Amino acid sequence: MSATAGQADGVRSLADRLGIESGMVVMEIGYDDDVDEDLRDLLMDRVGDFVDEDTDEVVDTVLLWWRDGDGDLVDTLVDALSPLADNGVVWLLTPSITPYWNIHRGVKDFTFEVLI
């Protein structure tokens, strides 16, 4: 189903649900060969290339792919806040037992919700 058809039926795409809009600057942290490539492609179709964690740009959204054993999550989340715009969002994506990634939303006050 195309994004247009889904929107016509009242179904929002995952990019819409994540609040990713054309023109946004999106930083990606933790990319590896196990990430959800379909989700990445969907988001990149909307915003173009992601910036990496070495960017000097202010970013609207951070996609943080996180796995057990990746190190200190708190340190990484704090580092992710540094380039984040005041109203920016950090999406924490963690592997699940299903073939999909769990998605958690965090804003600068570190409130989280799980999006299923």
Q: Outline the biggest β-sheet.
A: 5 strands, mixed
What Rg, in angstroms, do the CA atoms define?
A: 14 Å
Which class best fits the helix and strand makeup? alpha/beta
Biggest β-sheet: strands ordered side by side in the sheet: 1-2-3-4-5
How are helices and strands ordered from N to C?
A: HHEHEHEEE
Beta content comes to: 25-35%
Number of domains: 1
Mass-distribution shape: globular
Q: What is the helix content? A: 25-40%
Low-pLDDT parts are 1-6, 107-116
Intertermini distance: 20 Å
Number of extended strands: 5
Number of helices: 4
pLDDT averaged over residues: 79
Folded structure, characterized:
The protein has 4 helices and 5 strands, in the order ααβαβαβββ. With 116 residues, the chain is α/β, with parallel strands linked by helices. It has one domain. The protein has a 5-stranded mixed sheet with strand order 1-2-3-4-5, covered by helices on one side. Strand 3 and strand 4 form a beta hairpin. It is globular and about 40 Å long.
Describe what is shown at a glance.
This protein is α/β, with parallel strands linked by helices and 116 residues long.
Provide the fold topology.
Layout: H1 3-8, H2 14-17, E1 26-29, H3 37-47, E2 59-65, H4 73-81, E3 84-95, E4 101-107, E5 112-115
Parallel strand pairs: 1-2, 2-3
Antiparallel strand pairs: 3-4, 4-5
Q: Keywords for this structure?
A:
single chain; 116 residues; alpha/beta; 5-stranded mixed β-sheet; 5 strands; 26% helix; 29% strand; disordered N terminus; disordered C terminus
